[in-house]
Structure formats: C-alpha cells, structure tokens
Amino acid sequence: MKKLILLAGLIVLAGFTPKKPFKVVFFGDSITEYGAQPGGFITLLRDRLKTEQKDKDYEVAGAGIGGNKIYDLYLRYEDDVLTKNPDEVVIWVGVNDVWHKRLFGTGTDWDKFGRFYSALIKKMQAKNIKVVLCTPASVGEKTDFSNELDGDLNKYSQIIRDLAKQYNCDLVDFRYTFHEYNLKNNPENKDHDILTKDGVHLNDVGNKLVADIFYKTLIK
Amino acid sequence: MKKLILLAGLIVLAGFTPKKPFKVVFFGDSITEYGAQPGGFITLLRDRLKTEQKDKDYEVAGAGIGGNKIYDLYLRYEDDVLTKNPDEVVIWVGVNDVWHKRLFGTGTDWDKFGRFYSALIKKMQAKNIKVVLCTPASVGEKTDFSNELDGDLNKYSQIIRDLAKQYNCDLVDFRYTFHEYNLKNNPENKDHDILTKDGVHLNDVGNKLVADIFYKTLIK
Amino acid sequence: MKKLILLAGLIVLAGFTPKKPFKVVFFGDSITEYGAQPGGFITLLRDRLKTEQKDKDYEVAGAGIGGNKIYDLYLRYEDDVLTKNPDEVVIWVGVNDVWHKRLFGTGTDWDKFGRFYSALIKKMQAKNIKVVLCTPASVGEKTDFSNELDGDLNKYSQIIRDLAKQYNCDLVDFRYTFHEYNLKNNPENKDHDILTKDGVHLNDVGNKLVADIFYKTLIK
Amino acid sequence: MKKLILLAGLIVLAGFTPKKPFKVVFFGDSITEYGAQPGGFITLLRDRLKTEQKDKDYEVAGAGIGGNKIYDLYLRYEDDVLTKNPDEVVIWVGVNDVWHKRLFGTGTDWDKFGRFYSALIKKMQAKNIKVVLCTPASVGEKTDFSNELDGDLNKYSQIIRDLAKQYNCDLVDFRYTFHEYNLKNNPENKDHDILTKDGVHLNDVGNKLVADIFYKTLIK
C-alpha cells in the first residue's frame, strides 16, 4: 500500500518535472548586447517562442559586450558563457576586429582572428556545445562595395565561412543576407537606415529580419 | 608667276617650320614613375607612336614620383608639370591616398582628396591644359571585393568619376577596367600576377593593357 | 606760390591719412579658430591692444579652421591669408598632422610636413610677410611623456624649430612652454584641465597664457 | 652506530638524487625569441650559469615568438609554457601591442592590455609559478622622447609597473634602464645602435646588459 502511494507520488512528481529547455546563448559584441534589449532580436526571439508555445523547449540568452573582438570572447568565455550551461552558442563577431583597425589602431590581424576563433570553437565543442557561426553583416549598407571596410569585411567573412566548414558548424551568413536585402531594398545606395541605424547596429527592420533568420535556423 | 614663287616660298617655309607635337604629360605616383622605365606603359606608348609614325604629332613624358598622393601633385605641379609645357595632362593618382591610411596612418581624407583634386584641375584648365582623369586600378586583384582596401578604392574612384563630370574632363576608368579584366582572366581569385606584380604595380600584361587604353583614348 | 599751396595741401592730406596699423594674421587649426571667439587668445590680444592704446599700431585677425593640417594651410593661403594683406603671419599648426594618424589614418608624413611647411614659408617671405612659427603645444597634458602622441609631437616640434632657424623666423615654442608650465602646475599628472579643456584646446588659463606670450613676442 | 649508518645512507642517497634545477622560462615576443639564439641574452645566461657552476641549480629556456602581443601569450600559455613545468616565468611583452597600432592597425587597447596581462598572471600564480614582469625597452633609442611611440610605451610601461605591485611580482624595468643607459651613452641622440640593432631588437651590448640584469635579478 505504501509502495503504491509512493509510486503514485513519483508519477505525479515526474509529471511536474519539466524537461530542461534547450539553451541557446548569443555570444558577441554590441550588436548582440543590444539584441537583448527591448525590441532587440533576442527579445523578439523569446517573445515568439512564448507566442508559439515553444518556450518550454527553447531558452535564449544574450552574452554580448560592446567593443568585443574575437579575443575578448576567448578571454571571457568561461565566465560569461560556460557558466550559463548552454546547449548551443551562436558566435556573432568580426565587426570590431575590422573596424577598430581604422578607429583605434587595435583591430585583429586576419591570421590571429582565425587562430582565436578556432581555439574558441574547439573549447566549446570539447564540452559538446553546438556552435553556430555568423558572418559580420555590415559597416555601412551601400551596395556597390564602396563602404570603406567592405574589403576587409568580405575577407573576414570568408575566414568564418571556411571555419564553419572546417569545424562542421552551422553558418548564418549575415554578410551575404544583408547585401542581398540591400540590393533589393536600398535603391538609393544609402549608408544606413535600411537594416541598421548607423551602418552597424540593427534598427527595427534589422532586428526583425535577424530574429526571423535565427528562428528558422535554430528552432526545429 | 608671282603667285607661283610665293607658293613655292610658302611650301619651303612650311617645310622648315616643324609643327610642335601635341605634348602629353603623365602625372602621378610610382605606377606612373615605373611607366617611364623600359617596358613601362609610357615607353610602350612612345614606341608605338614611332612605329605608327605619329611621333611628330604626339610626344609623351612621365612625371610620376613614388608615394605621391593628390596633395603632393598639387605641391609640385608648377615645377614638374607646368615647366614641361604640356597640352594635355593625365592625372593618375589615388592608390596611396587610400593605402597610406593603413601603411603609415598618412592617407588622405576623402573630402580633402576632392578639394586638392579640384584645385589642381582648375589650375591646369586656367592654363588651357586638357586634363584627363584616371581612377586608381587596384590594391590587390581579387575579384570578389575582398581586397582589404576595395571599399575605399571604390569610394575614391567615384569621387574621381564625379570630378570628371563636374570639370568636363575625359575619364579613364582603370578601376572598372581592371575589375572587368580580372573577372574574365583571374578565375582563381589571385591577389596579384594578373595585371600587376604585387597587386598595385603593373606587370608586362598590365603595362601593355594600359598603353593600349591610353593610345585609344589620347591619340586621334 | 603755387608750390607752397601744393605743399600745404600735401601736409593736410598726410594729416588725414591715418597710418595703416601693422597687421598680424594667426593662421592655423581649431586652436586658432577658437582663439578668435570671445575669450579666445586673439580676442584677448585685441582687447589688450585697445586697453594699452596700441590698436592704431597693431591689428590682429584669425584665419584658423578646425582639422587643418599643414597642407590645408598651403592650399588656402592665397584665399584666406594673402587677401587680408598681412604684415606678419603666425603659423600654429601640427596637432592634427600627428593626431589624425591615430584618429583617421590621415596624418601627415614627417618629411612632407617639412616640405609643405617650407613651401608655405617661402611663399610668404616672397611677399615680404614676416613669418612666426609655433610648435604644437599638446595632445594631453601629462608631464611624464606618457601622452600617447608625445613622441611624434616632440619630433614634429623639432622639425618646426629647425625650420625657424633655416628660414630665419621667430619661434614661439609652445611645446616647451606648456610642458614647463605643467611641470610646475600639474602635480597630479592630469591629462587636461591645466591649460586645456581636453588636452588640446585652450581653457581660460591657456588662452590667457598664450595671449600674454604672443603680446610679448609680437608687440613692440 | 645505527645513526651513523643512517646518516651515511642519507648522504649517499642525497648524492644520487639530483636536485631538480629551478626552471626559468622567458615568455615573450621576437626579443625573447632572438634571446635564445647564439649570442642572445638567454644563451648568455645559460653560459654564465655553467661558468659559475650554477647550472645544476638553475635552468633557463626561451618561449618567444616574433610579433606576439599580450593576448598571443595568453592564447599559447598552456602549450608553450605550462608544458615546460617552469618554477618562474619572465614575461617580456608590450612592444608589439603599441607598435602594431601604427604598423598594421592591430595593436592592443591599453585597457585590454591590462585585462589579458592580469588574466595571464593569475593563471600562473594559481599554479604557484613565480612571475616576473618586464617593461618594454624601446622602439627607437632617442633620449628626448621624440621616438614616435614613446608616449604609448611610457603609458603601457606604467600599466606593467602597476600590475607588478598589484600582483606582488618582481619587476625588471627595462624601459627605465634603457633610457638611463642612453642618457649616458647616446650623446648624439641616435635612433638605434646603442643597445639595439634597429631601435627594438638587442645588439651585442644590449644582450650583454639584459643578461647581466636578469642574472642579478633571478639568480641568488
């Protein structure tokens, strides 16, 4: 009799033990940092998961810090990402690695960009974390490749594409997507105000687009 | 009878008064400096003028100095170009204005590039010198706009195209031509060795192409 | 009789012809531009000339434009300075030639700094204009030579000192004076707020000091 | 009697158990890399330890790689230093963190320089490794602080001095020592050829001086 009651209790308990949701952490720079704010793409993703009643299956969190380059991610990975116990980490970095060459003389050499990126992927994969890579979208939205940093952004994006292949990671190619979107929607060849507020940071349309792409890519 | 003698006299006179050839001076940086060396495009042009017996109609000369930017041309215009009494000046500059930002931190702001370029054109046109503008060809020959400086080179080329319109000058759009040539002849997306030795300075094929283009543009 | 009348007329005429004051034009960058504003050193100089009743002997004017480097001065010399018919021109430039290397990658190579500076001096001396040179004071007021640009500022200041000797110009060595002043008055090794608002642009104390130095140097 | 035998046994035993020498690893950039070559300061140290019969007490090894900045040391610390089982690590880095701002636009922000340096010290101290810090000696040997990078080198040296205090590490202040040496031995204010071949990399005199300083500091 006692056993039966215990069993019943266990069954009830099991019913109340929610499955731990699959946790996705977005790891990056200011674009990701702003993504966690109201209206940002991470917030939009979280809202949509709730609306579509998938918030028991998926959880999203941001780990973006403004001004971060690939080696900053490498330095703070343990403290800021591993402690969140993620099942999947989406790395979106590269804009500052290129931009800070011009702004402060402190960008990242392309070969060291690859070296730190590889080391970061390996650390995560060693913990069985699924890693998703993203190419840097834009520093300036002009479509004729006359934004000052287009050459380097294209180069570093290619490095990321190659790393995705090498380490068998999913790739979200924002560099390609943003360019294609602008070719259709930026007939005046404007520097910003299409998907970004300032050429770099997402406006409402940009956040919506990015949230949609991530939803399709990450949520099954 | 008198008329005949007069006519004969005129013929003799004409025979003794050689027509001054139309003088073209190439004004620029190291690309132009090397152009005046054996095998360079200015030398090739001179050879061809001789072969086609046009060397009495046209004379070509180089005024290129390595490392020059637009304001260097402005500074030495009187000494190095005006003293040559040119009928036509071909300005080919811009590579260092962009490149030296990265190499030495001493490139040229885009707005000042335009300002010095305008001032130089005006000085020449005030002397009734015909001015021909050229866009900078390349710093790196990769065709997917992943050469580090492609963005800025495209931007500065557009400034030059706009100046050509504004001041009613002929334009030789090497930026466009080199890209088109590479799209056809650089399937491996190589950084150099198509039209240049090092991404910037012309190899034999490049000198030949440039000489051909200038011949078609300048020689009637 | 006629002669006497004529002579008298000339004397009267001379009496009505006021002596043209000796005109000093300050030619430079934003520091000079701000110098012409209320509280700026040029305004202070003008006030003092009035107070000391020397405003009939001396006239001061500003020709400063923010962001200017030595070659910008060279470009706009005819329009902005020569048109003012100056007897004396005080050139104060150099901060941006060094600083813009870091800020925008568009500073001035040291050798070209000297070349444009020489050309500018020669142009003025050819018009019998007295030329006074100034060294750039500071980008950061720390006294232990740990301001990022101290090395280059010291180097470019030395170039200016050498030019002053070479062209026999008076020199106002603000680089030296500001450093000495800070050694005495900046015990906390502060970056700004001693003679400048931001390490570069003069605060009230700075404007007062600069006006005093110029008064002593320029006004006899 | 038993005691004597025991004692004798201990002596014999001691004789047979070679004491593991105290291992010092030099961790840095090209200066350290060259230090391990013939004539380099690490080689000189090893020779002197042998001459003075201290090579059973001390062992020295190099772990320098050209072009390394502080974050490169952080990335390769486990592979290149920890695997050598050092008792003491001498970190000598900083030249490239400053220099590469100018050379490639890829120097290290001062705040991140401190952050990576701290993280590296902590990692080592957690393994009970004694850590010795060195300030960057020079990029140019001129004594009047007119070497282009003097400002930043002074700033980064101060960061290292502060870190040495904060983490209770020994400090070898080459920035100070080299400047003092040059004040005495570089009356012509030469850019190099006093302690360095090129302003940065040690010549024979420099290697001798550095080896002497390290010997005094590290060997008891």
TrEMBL record, chains A, B, C, D:
Domain SGNH hydrolase-type esterase: 26-209
Organism, as annotated: Mucilaginibacter pineti
Classification via Gene3D superfamilies: SGNH hydrolase (3.40.50.1110)
Protein name: Lysophospholipase L1
SUPFAM superfamilies, A to Z: SGNH hydrolase (SSF52266)
Taxonomic lineage of the native organism: Bacteria, Pseudomonadati, Bacteroidota, Sphingobacteriia, Sphingobacteriales
Single GO MF annotation: phosphatidylcholine lysophospholipase activity
